[in-house]
């Protein structure tokens, strides 16, 4: 027995609640709403300038047309489906829908200015720039900023929480949990600035980017200037040199930046997962939640694992989009038509990951006792400090030790050394008394350098 119609993608099924806001922009309906807006605005531009003998529409007519585009809803979605069933062309169906509205308003006199001198790609490229820009600014970026702000709060909260580092997975010079989280905040904020600075380009120059049809209808007009004024009126950056399509370079740049953000976030997830595994972070039990179907004690770090997988999917799609969209055979092929319809899927997986990360960060608490125990079990990490002080003492003429590094290597490499052994070793060193006192006062927990103060760099 067949199931009733089901969503094929988990983004439209299991995870819909987390990503539904993207659908307002990057669904087929969102694209068609933007297409209607572009068609309406182009018609209004032509009539506002009274081109080809047209008359400027009155305020109420213009308001109704813009409202028609802004309130594009189920009735228009259904009508477009009916029209496209006949036209077998999505943009032509949009043109006919706008013409129907003009007829309803008694504006048949300007109906021929609908889609005037425009190729489908003139409408499409502006519509994609509008929808992708809105999706990034209104949906993805707020979720991204939420993660950054949450991390910033944790970094400041734990700036003084000493922690054993693990370079190559081995005990290393201590840091603080706050400083390590601040590193991620700093990385993410650099990418944030790049994404915020994205230029959303648009073209409006006809079938091969030459204004040929425009010039044949109005040879006296400055069509590049008209095109630039119209494109920028939509809040986009004008691209003067294109083929039939806008070259999609801005999309490749944007997707590379978001993919980069995904990978930094992936690094965060694997690190937090590891800190949970080490016991540095405790997971806060959620009421009613089950960690394992057979082991009642478990709280699995599923938020971070889910985020990892979705970040990988998102980056794979974004990388593919960036690689394929910048190529179009000669003046036009249709590979970008299907490809661009997956932008929402690519951003959806990233948005789902951001939602999981934000939730996951809110469900952990630092176990300082675990961090302290780990530090207290690894006094040998002070070998770096001791040999560095010896080098300084040799340089100052207060020590004659020949090879400080080798001396400490012999004492500590591959061995566990506790506080008594280190104090005894320090007391026997050929160095000044002040240096000895300074080294005796060191503990793994206090050997974190400027870690705490470095968090200042991500405070706003």
From TrEMBL:
Domain Fumarate lyase N-terminal: 58-307
Enzyme Commission code: 4.3.2.2
Top-rank EC class of the record's enzyme: lyase
The Adenylosuccinate lyase PurB C-terminal domain, residue ranges: 328-447
UniProt keyword list: Lyase, Purine biosynthesis
Signal peptide: none
Pathway the protein takes part in: Purine metabolism; AMP biosynthesis via de novo pathway; AMP from IMP: step 2/2; Purine metabolism; IMP biosynthesis via de novo pathway; 5-amino-1-(5-phospho-D-ribosyl)imidazole-4-carboxamide from 5-amino-1-(5-phospho-D-ribosyl)imidazole-4-carboxylate: step 2/2
GO molecular function: lyase activity
Biological role: Catalyzes two reactions in de novo purine nucleotide biosynthesis. Catalyzes the breakdown of 5-aminoimidazole- (N-succinylocarboxamide) ribotide (SAICAR or 2-[5-amino-1-(5-phospho-beta-D-ribosyl)imidazole-4-carboxamido]succinate) to 5-aminoimidazole-4-carboxamide ribotide (AICAR or 5-amino-1-(5-phospho-beta-D-ribosyl)imidazole-4-carboxamide) and fumarate, and of adenylosuccinate (ADS or N(6)-(1,2-dicarboxyethyl)-AMP) to adenosine monophosphate (AMP) and fumarate.
Record protein name field: Adenylosuccinate lyase
Upper lineage: Bacteria, Bacillati, Actinomycetota, Actinomycetes, Micrococcales
């Amino acid at each position: 027995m067949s199931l009733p119609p089901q969503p094929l993608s988990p983004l439209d099924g299991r995870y819909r609640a987390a990503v539904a806001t993207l659908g307002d922009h990057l669904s087929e309906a969102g694209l068609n709403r933007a297409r209607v807006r572009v068609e309406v605005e182009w018609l209004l531009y032509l009539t506002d300038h009274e081109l080809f003998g047209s008359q400027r529409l009155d305020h109420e007519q213009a308001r109704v047309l813009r409202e028609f585009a802004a309130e594009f809803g189920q009735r228009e979605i259904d009508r477009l489906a009916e029209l496209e069933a006949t036209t077998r062309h999505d943009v032509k169906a949009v043109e006919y829908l706008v013409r129907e509205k003009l007829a309803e308003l008694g504006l048949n006199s300007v109906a021929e200015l609908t889609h005037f001198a425009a190729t489908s790609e003139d409408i499409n490229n502006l519509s994609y720039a509008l929808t992708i820009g809105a999706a990034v600014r209104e949906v993805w970026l707020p979720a991204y900023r939420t993660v950054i702000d949450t991390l910033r709060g944790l970094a400041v909260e734990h700036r003084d929480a000493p922690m054993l580092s693990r370079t190559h997975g081995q005990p290393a010079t201590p840091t603080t949990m706050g400083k390590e989280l601040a590193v991620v905040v700093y990385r993410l904020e650099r990418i944030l600035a790049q994404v915020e600075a994205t230029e959303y380009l648009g073209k409006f120059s006809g079938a091969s980017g030459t204004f040929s049809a425009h010039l044949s209808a109005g040879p006296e007009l400055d069509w590049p200037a008209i095109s630039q004024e119209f494109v920028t009126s939509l809040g986009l950056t004008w691209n003067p040199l294109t083929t039939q399509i806008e070259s999609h370079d801005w999309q490749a740049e944007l997707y590379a930046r978001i993919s980069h953000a995904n990978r930094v976030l992936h690094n965060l997830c694997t690190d937090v997962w590891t800190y949970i595994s080490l016991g540095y972070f405790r997971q806060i039990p959620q009421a009613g939640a089950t960690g394992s179907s057979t082991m009642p004690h478990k709280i699995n770090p599923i938020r971070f694992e889910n985020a990892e997988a979705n970040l990988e999917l998102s980056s794979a799609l974004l990388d593919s989009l960036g690689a394929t969209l910048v190529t179009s055979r000669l003046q036009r092929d249709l590979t970008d038509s299907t490809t661009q319809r997956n932008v929402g899927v690519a951003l959806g997986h990233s948005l789902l990951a951001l939602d999981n990360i934000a939730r996951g960060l809110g469900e952990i608490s630092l176990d300082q006792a675990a961090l302290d125990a780990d530090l207290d079990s690894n006094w040998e990490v002070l070998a770096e400090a001791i040999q560095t002080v010896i080098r300084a003492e040799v340089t100052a003429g207060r020590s004659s030790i020949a090879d400080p590094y080798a001396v400490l290597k012999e004492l500590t490499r591959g061995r566990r050394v506790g506080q008594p052994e280190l104090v005894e070793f320090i007391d026997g060193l050929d160095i000044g008394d002040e240096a000895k006192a300074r080294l005796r006062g060191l503990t793994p927990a206090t050997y974190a350098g400027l870690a705490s103060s470095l968090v200042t760099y991500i405070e706003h």
